[in-house]
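Below is the data:
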Amino acid sequence: MPGIPEHLLIAGVLLILLLTFGLVELMERGRHRRRGYWRYDLLRFAPLRRVMESRLLQPVLQLPVVALFLLIILAGLMGEQRPDRNIATVLTWVVWWALLVFVLVVAGKVWCTVCPWNAISDWVRRRSLWKRVRDEELFTLNLKWPDRLKNIYLATGFFVLLTWLELGLGVTGSPRITAYLGLLILVMALVPAVLFEGKPFCRYACLVGRISGLYAMFSPVELRSRSKRLCRRCRSRDCHRGNERGYPCPTFESLHTMDSNTYCILCTECVKSCRHGNVALNLRTPAADLMELRKPRRDEALLSLVMLSMTSFHGITMTPQWFSWLVELQERLSVGYYAAFTLMMLVVLTLFPAVFYVVCVLSRRASGSEVPVSRIFINYAYPLLPIALFYHLAHNTMHFFREGQKLLPVLSDPFGWGWNLFGTAGAAPEPLLSFTAIWYLQVFFIVLGHVFSILVASKVARITFAEQSSAFRSLLPQLAVLVGYSAFSLWLIAQPMVMRTSM
């Protein structure tokens, strides 16, 4: 697949440079504005509130997704093993994996609402599809999750492992391995659900949930309390502890302290259990959680850097240069393919954070302050999220709009057995968008991600440093690295992409 033309690459880089200086000037002029952002509560509409208070809502949304999940498992295990003729690989890697990031940008954590792994573990734990079962009747040992694992390092490790499996082992080209991977994640969700209280897998270990959790900080949708004052006066804390109408928050959140989308899974239990009707489903300013950064965490910062590294690594492995580098490394070190691939992946995985750490040291020196480098490293990792998110969108744009039409034939013949259920088995539809349209979309996404990264970085600078002069000086090295990362993203989409599978 051809990359963007040279004139678009040059125009994109120039636009990034111009916007960087313009946005910094704009943010400096508005640095005294009060914190806060626009929001509009959708639950003002009584019919929507009644729907979200219903215990039938989640199972009704989950059942079709669970049915598709089971179809993927059966097709992967029993069907034709050509990836382009089996719905397991096409629906999982071409459609779901590509569209997931688009869904996150528009609707936040809605995937968690319908997640089949979450749904099945819920049904087993509760032994009910929708009925509110008493806590003592739940099928669980209700053990405490170990304190040392109350972070998202497990999820970060699983994400790196999945990247290796996807790009190194090539699971995207194997229906059977795709099915095994789906079953493995189901076991990973189900076992903690019957051993521990709440859903520690969703909170701490789910690689999809934690990646979507950080990306959802950008989302224009949030679930929050309407009034923090009313929350502080509440003694029952039903949103956290549950009551006869709703279960306790499965990810251990409480509305009176929750100020980010990261760990909410939009299960709507708090909407059902709050006796004061103090839960809002807000439309809001995009990237509000990043702009109003309140609780930066080391584990989230690390995952942000890993996500940036691995999304870039996806693109690197599809360039023609990658294959020549890989062959050369194998010859020089006299090692096999998997050893060379793993070494190259580790280089990318460590190079991006290492460069960023050096930039953070420069930021501290430029600021002239005593703020620790560790704090600068953690706080300034969050502005990298929009760059990772929108490069991810740009990369997936090519995949989905050039390959998404391949779903049509396998809908009629999901197992590759020669069926023609809907009369589309022999269809050979054209790609959904032309290359030209995709190129402009890709450049737009990367430039937009850069804009948000600059806006967030400017906010983070003022949060990190007490003096405005120190904040501004610390920002200068960060701007350089943000421009560098965005320009590198443009360079990646300018390279011709070599597909990894026969799909």
